[in-house]
Design brief:
The chain is an alpha/beta fold and 304 residues long. It folds into two domains: 15-23 and 207-303, ProC C-terminal domain-like fold (Orthogonal Bundle), CATH 1.10.3730; 35-195, Rossmann fold. Helix content is 49%, strand content 12%. The protein has helices at residues 3-22, 35-38, 50-61, 78-81, 108-111, 134-141, 173-183, 198-206, 208-225, 230-251, 255-262, 268-276, 283-303; strands spanning 43-46, 69-72, 86-87, 98-101, 124-127, 147-151, 161-167, 187-191. It has an eight-stranded mixed sheet with strand order 3-2-1-4-5-6-7-8, sandwiched between helices. Strand 2 (69-72), helix 4 and strand 3 (86-87) form a beta-alpha-beta unit. Helix 8 (198-206) crosses helix 13 (283-303) and helix 9 (208-225) packs across helix 10 (230-251). It is elongated. The chain starts with a helix and ends with a helix. The relative contact order is 0.10.
């Protein structure tokens, strides 16, 4: 890299980091509303595995009164049992404001029996169950039940996920606003226009963390091939991906421009991008095929 290119790149990073330092973001777990203001009648959580636990932790950290929470989980963890909430079947006559469903699709048909008494209209159903469509819940709980389907992703476990969500015809704007408050406890949110978009969301952000982890693996492996130790190569790859992602969030520039800012004509990055952006065989075409495969598989699972 020529001296002029190095100076230009150094200036880019200085300006970018100064700009990023001025930006503020919502800390993990901080939510835009007060849970207790609309959950006075309580919240039922069906399923408390990895994703259910991440959401519950976000809600409790965000100020939700544990006494308002009732969890249905056949194998409660020591952490769950220590939170001061109720664990067990839904009491007869229970009328919670929300019921969040976080069970795996394989056990959904059996698990849904635990909350059938909550169907009918007064309780809002918030499903974060992958591959289970709104019509299933309407068939099981009644077509007049407000149902909101959401698709979070695994970074929700550290409060850095993103959840896309959509409601059925019975879900009001108030219901959607409240659901967004709950989902915001584990990261960012996106409202969808129609449930048909969920399959694309699953293919992009739901499965997306696996694509990024694979990128980290392959980047580190390439570094090892060029003489770096496995430890150093992995540290470089993880920090590079994490830092670039945060820069894309904070900087405000289009990611295409961020890429161009790092790419000096005739430099090392340009040489690498010639391969990654090769017409017909580059990363763009590979990613399109990958996302399409995930989308089609999601549709298949939803129709089973």
């Amino acid at each position: 890299m020529q001296l002029a290119d190095r100076l230009e790149l150094a200036g880019f990073w200085r300006d970018t980091l100064e700009y990023a330092a001025e930006k503020t973001t919502r800390p993990a777990g901080q939510t835009p509303g007060d849970f207790n203001s609309f959950l006075g009648r309580g919240l039922v959580l069906l399923g408390c595995g990895k994703m259910g636990s991440a959401m519950l932790k976000g809600w409790l950290d965000g100020g939700l009164d544990a006494s308002l929470v009732h969890v249905i989980e056949p194998y409660p963890s020591p952490w769950l049992c220590s939170q001061g909430l109720q664990v067990g079947p839904v009491p007869v006559g229970a009328n919670p404001a929300f019921c969040a469903i976080a069970v795996k699709p394989q056990v959904m048909s059996e698990a849904i029996d635990n909350v059938k008494s909550l169907g009918g209209g007064r309780t809002v159903i918030l499903s974060i169950a992958a591959g289970t469509r709104i019509r299933f819940f309407e068939q099981q709980l009644g077509s007049n039940t407000p149902i909101i389907r959401a698709m979070p992703n695994t970074p929700a476990a550290i409060g850095r996920g993103i959840s896309a969500f959509v409601g059925n015809r019975c879900a009001t704007k108030e219901h959607l606003d409240q659901a967004e408050t709950l989902l915001s406890a584990v990261g960012d949110t996106v409202r969808l226009r129609d449930e048909s978009e969920i399959d694309a969301v699953t293919a992009v952000s739901g499965s997306g963390p696996a694509y990024v982890f694979l990128l980290i693996e392959t980047l580190a492996r390439a570094g090892v091939r060029e003489g770096l130790s496995e430890t150093v190569a992995m540290q470089l790859a993880i920090s590079t991906v994490a830092g670039a992602g945060q820069l894309a969030q904070l900087d405000g520039k289009p990611v295409e421009q961020l890429r161009k800012d790092v790419t000096s004509p005739g430099g090392t990055t340009a040489a690498a991008l010639q391969h990654l952006m090769a017409p017909g065989s580059g990363l763009a075409q590979l990613m399109q095929r990958a996302v399409r495969a995930a989308l089609e598989r999601g549709r298949e699972l939803g129709s089973e």
